[in-house]
Amino acid sequence: MTANAPAVTRQQVRQKRVTARIGNWLLGTNAALIFGFLYLPVVILIIFSFNNTRSVARFTGFSTEWYVRLANNSELLDAARNSLLVGLTTTIVATAIGTLTALAMDRYRFRLRTAFDANLYLPIVIPEIVMGISLLLFFNQALFPLLQNVFGIKASTGLHTITISHIAFDIPFVYVIVRARLADFDRTLEEAAADLGADEWKTFQRVTLPLLMPGIIGGALMAFTLSLDDYLITVFTKGVREQTMPLYIYSLVRRGVTPEINALSTALLIGSIGLVGLSLTAQNGGVVYTRAMSVGAGLGLGLYGLFSLPTLFASFTIGGLVLRLLLLAAFVWMWRSYQPYREELNLTNPSGRILAWITMFVTVSVVFLSTLLLLG
Amino acid sequence: MNKTLIYIFILVSLTLAACQPATSAPTEPPAGGGETTERCGDKSQLADEIFLYTWVEYIDPDLKTQFEEECGVKVTETNYDSNETLLATLQAGGAEYDIIVPSDYMVQILIDEGMVQELDYNVVTNIKNMEPLNVNQYFDPDQKYTVPWFWGTSGFAVDTSVVTDVKPSWDMMFDTNSPYCGKMSMLDDERETIGAALMSLGYSINDTDPAHLEEAKNRLIEQSKCIKAYDSQTNDDLIISGETVLGHMWTGDAILAGSPDAGGREEIQYVIPQEGCTIWQDNMMIPTGAPNPYTAMVFMNYLQYPEIAAQNAEWVGYATPNKAAKEFIDPDMLTNEAIYPSAEVAESLQWIEDVGPALELYDRIWTEFKAAVGSQ
Predict the structure, then answer these.
(1) Could you tell me if residue A277 is inside a domain?
(2) pLDDT tens digits for A24-39?
(3) Minimum-distance CB partner of A319 among B14, B55, B237
(4) Which among A60, A92, A375 has CB closest to B15?
(5) Is residue A57 in some structural domain?
(6) Which domain holds residue A144?
(7) Sign of the C-alpha dihedral, residues B194, B198, B199, B201?
(8) Which of A104, A348, B284, B333 could pair with A352 as two cysteines, CB 3.0-4.6 Å apart?
């Protein structure tokens, strides 16, 4: 028995090594296939945005003409702007409501709680087309007549109804994600904060919210994506004045999709990769990057405010004036974040300093360009 | 983070508020001090803005600007992807469009459903400019509801670098001893594909005789061994890349496939078979309950002045039904028989009409054919 033991071990070791090698190889192939499956279409999409003819199936030569055309296609840019506007508003509102609902459902016991909980999942389960039609009926048969008869306001569908509908179907998604995060939330941390003298608001601000943040951000990203590419619900709740990007792209089917769409997708992709990169840097790299982003955002908004002042004088409106003043107020915000930013910068090593400045400049350009797209 | 969110939220809600339609109550300004011009009609009766719901890229943006400058009416355009989407939107109610652009068969449905209103041809006087081919057709026999907008056909495209003996006949597509057997594609469309077989046999595209349909089915099954693909979406790419040399195709795709500017090859020509060929037409109409019918009619009329119709036809690339516009159109485009077929060819064109209860027969023939050739 003892004599055989080393031989068996050696054989076992060899076997293990082979298994491990096969396992590694399989895992590697699997990973490569998954990444290929996910990213190859995106790479192809980007390549075809540089095609020199209108084909999205055969590459005939390099050109940037589609980016030039995109910059001049006001219909498509309008649609993209509407999509961003709806997406941003939806994300903010749906994330706030979804998070608060999740907290309430997690912390409190009340009558019909289970029924209410089940109801919240309904928008995820029911087909989108049913949701679209029911929302349309709600607007046309209930809300608008009510507004008309009680308040004398004549309302019609438009971007606002699209936004309300998107908020309605996005809330459950945020709710589910935040609820999952809350499931393994350690309540003792909150008790510890209370022990140390923090009041409830402070506890929420300093302990609960930061711990929930990954769930909230995940929910917000989900909400934004769902809103950005929704077609069915939008088609039912849209008005006569504006359309969103998916509606425009679907309508291209008749005339054929051109690389212009690829160019727009590439621009959006680079924008979102930039934003994700920025937020990752901010999360992992410490407070100096957050401050750099804050300064950058203030500067970007302020600069846009400054540049758009002449258009205000061209056609004066009160709303426009308030908007410009708000934009210019961003300068104050930048000024107030600049001092702590410099202090932080002094504590950072040289390479970190360079990275912080890069972060700031990227933020300035992203904020400036997206404000231009949204308001320009 | 919180502060940033609040700032963004305020910004977004302000912009949303700024985007809201400010004008909703008085759509037609009060009469009085009327100034009447030829192209703009009675200016005192014009609304400030009209809403156009149309196919994408169906109107030159410069013409919208020109109309706004000349007549003071802003034209706001949104797009749909199919006639069915248009129908669904109108049926849902709530969306008040001034002008819609349905295709022939949808015109008939909309009239039957009472969803469109009669036009006043004292306003749309330019209806006199139309070719006889394009007016008083089956969907609007008394020409009471429509102004023809664009039209086209569906014959087949030929790669003349391979196929030398081009005959304007369906025999080219249905000859099973042809040297090009295996390098052909047919549309994947119930009425179009069965229609091609019916016309190749010398029957009408709207034939409802079960024996004739059976014959057509057998012809299609026999032909199927030569067909590489039944495809309506990428059939133009197939012929450009040389995978097929003969392809049953809609005009728009065939013209693109034949123009080097659009990534096609000059050798690809479009043929209208002499036995008969489908004709389609998109028409401007005014839905019932449109807020500004008078302004809509002025705009429809405006677009049919010869120079304007010519400019738009060149921008869109489809055939205009406007006879008077032809002297202003680029002669190269005018002599392209794929776009403007000669008079004798035009006579053989056939409309796809509603076959009534025989549609069930068509469905059965189509299913049997699909089952026989495998689910392609």
Answers:
(1) no
(2) 999 999 999 999 998 8
(3) B14
(4) A375
(5) no
(6) 66-259
(7) positive
(8) A348
Strands B156-159 and B246-248: antiparallel
Per-residue pLDDT tens digits for A274-315: 777 776 776 666 678 878 888 888 999 999 888 888 877 777
> Are residue B67 and residue B144 in the same domain, yes or no?
yes
Site of tokens 């004292």: B122
Domains held by chain A: number: 3
Tokens found for residue B224: 């199927």
Residues A30 and A124 reside in one and the same domain: no
CB pairs under 8 A between A and B: 135
- Give domain status of residue A266, yes or no: no
Cβ <8 Å between A54 and B262 = yes
Q: Is the ipTM above a cut-off of 0.90?
A: no
| Backbone φ/ψ region at B244: left (φ over 0), alpha (ψ -120 to 50), beta | beta
Closest alpha carbon within chain B to A152: B25
Q: Record the pTM.
A: 0.75
- Give me the residue from A74, A89, A326 closest to B16, CB to CB: A89
Strand B74-79 versus strand B49-54 pairing type: parallel
Q: To which residue do tokens 């923090």 refer?
A: A198
What are the angstrom distances between the C-alpha of B213 and each of A270, B187, B230, B231?
54, 18, 19, 21
For A88, the token pair is 């941003």
Largest CA distance in chain B: 76
Count of domains in chain B?
A: 2
* Shared-domain flag, residues B246 and B364: yes
